[in-house]
Amino acid sequence: MWLLLTVAASAAEPSVRDLTFFEEKIRPILSRSCYSCHSDREGKTKGGLALDSRERIQQGGNSGPLFVAGSPNESLLVKAVRYDDEELQMPPN
Hints:
Number of helices: 4
Strand order of the largest sheet: 1-2
Number of strands: 2
Structural class: mainly alpha
Radius of gyration: 12 Å
Distance between the termini: 21 Å
């Protein structure tokens, strides 16, 4: 997860290693658990959030940016998947 935060928060283009990690480790999780509610391709962007492109991930949603550069524990995405915040638990079921 930390690498996702680093890659998405960075303005620089990701390295081949970073892209490979994302495609093999992160995208399958997003696809399985997040895209049904947060995907332009699925036609659903609940909370104004789409996770199916780098640009949309960087844009964030109605709650603001997904990432706090250098502070993964303060990032909305990390908080959502950790279930630490009762109002921000994803996926909700």
